[in-house]
Design brief:
about 110 residues; about 55% helix; mainly alpha; 5 helices
Length: about 110
């Protein structure tokens, strides 16, 4: 279905997005213990989303993305009983993209 040519632009965008994400769509089948949904993760950071909305959010889109990523790393480290500080230092000092050891299969 992803290789089909869609006439409507929104359908083309969706098919392109799904094709790009295809290698990751069924990761949970190969990673024991990884849930098929992100429902638990969404509930874990819900308090921060509510706080952001109540406090007025961020003033820029970049600020909102930074807060979103920071909260995600902090919460994941907390759930895995790992110290977030060295991981955040690694991210801040890295000139490129880093995959933290809090990601399933990352080591």
């Amino acid at each position: 279905m992803l290789e089909k040519h869609y006439r409507h632009a929104a359908n083309r965008r969706l098919a392109h997005h799904l094709q790009h994400e295809q290698p990751f769509l069924f990761t949970f089948l190969n990673c024991p213990g990884l849930d098929a949904t992100n429902h638990e993760a969404e509930r874990a950071i819900r308090w921060m989303v509510i706080a952001r909305k109540v406090w007025g959010g961020n003033r820029t889109w970049a600020g909102a993305q930074t807060q979103q990523n920071l909260v995600s790393v902090l919460r994941t480290c907390w759930q895995q009983d790992k110290d977030p500080f060295p991981r955040l230092v690694l991210l801040l000092r890295s000139p490129g993209t880093e995959t933290l050891d809090i990601v399933p299969g990352a080591g």
